[in-house]
Amino acid sequence: MQKTKLPKFMKDFLVYLTTIRGKSQRTRKEYEYDLTLFFRFHLAVQQDLDIGNITSIDISTITIEEIRDITLEDLYLFMEYCEVQRGNSASARARKVATLKSFFKYLKGKRRLIEENPADELETPKIGRKRPIYMNIEEARQFIDGIQSNHASPRNYCMMMFFLNLGIRVSELCQLNKSSIQGRYLTVVGKGNKERTVYLNDSCMQALTDYEACGKTAYKGEGEEPLFVSQKGTRFTRQTVAKIVKQINHQSGLQKERLTPHKLRHTSATMMYKAGADIRSLQHILGHSSVATTQIYTHIEDEQLQQVLENNPFNIVRNK
């Protein structure tokens, strides 16, 4: 597939994202996708091109003069296109708003290439707060018991223990190195390359000891040795770990709908909150930059309060 040619100011912005802002390559690709789509749509509107062939529109020749002519109304038109014609959800559109705001802020504030920022007044679509989907303790035990006994089972068991006990992200698990472990502490590199240290409880330590003793596959790649090595001798990808979770879900007979590594993270966080973890501690363990993100787990408290009220002895329905 031919790589899309980008205008220089857009390439400069993407470099700024990773080198100065510390954004991950995954976030950079998402921003690149959003901006490419926006500029293709903008050119299609300005030049009366077929929107059905939007992927073939060349954006490499866009000049900074054309950027200066972009208005808030142009951004609204793009958001309408994303919602109506592309069927983007509110969260998907919110990401595009964040991309546009960051890009135009960079052009004005960092590069002084534009005098007016058209995205200043661009509102973010309202997103309904979703309750996290998670397993209860019985489902989690059934899931773990479903790890089939073979040469890979100590590794897979250890990875699942890290998800369920530490609540780490799948991208963080894939980036773990042997050197990430110092005694009973694990250094995790999270979003924005922010490091945090988490304690390894007995379950994690036992799983790690069993994995190290099983004669794991030798690492065949370059750089630091990963903590978890695939059967091919490579570092795991998010997709491969997701396949392992899906396989265990199927083999266990649990068949939990859309069970992913992220759902295991939700399960861990929910169980820790139920066991009495305070929000600030949970925020550190999960690596959330804002405590507001961690507060999605307080829905457990809401459910428990509801149950208390349901069990109130005065909850009596009078017969008419």
Question: Can you describe this structure?
Answer:
This protein is mostly helical. It folds into two domains: 103 residues, DNA polymerase, domain 1, CATH 1.10.150; 171 residues, Intergrase catalytic core (hpI Integrase, Chain A), CATH 1.10.443. β2 and β3 form a beta hairpin. α1 runs antiparallel to α2. The chain is globular. The mean pLDDT is 90.
Helical residue percent band: 40-55%
C-alpha-based Rg, rounded: 24 Å
| Total count of domains | 2
Query: Element order, helices and strands?
Result: HHHHHHHHEEEHHHHHH
Question: Can you describe this structure in just a few lines?
Answer:
This protein has about 325 residues and is mainly α.
Descriptors:
DNA polymerase, domain 1, 3-stranded antiparallel beta sheet, 320 residues, 3 strands, globular, mainly alpha, hpI Integrase, Chain A, 2 domains
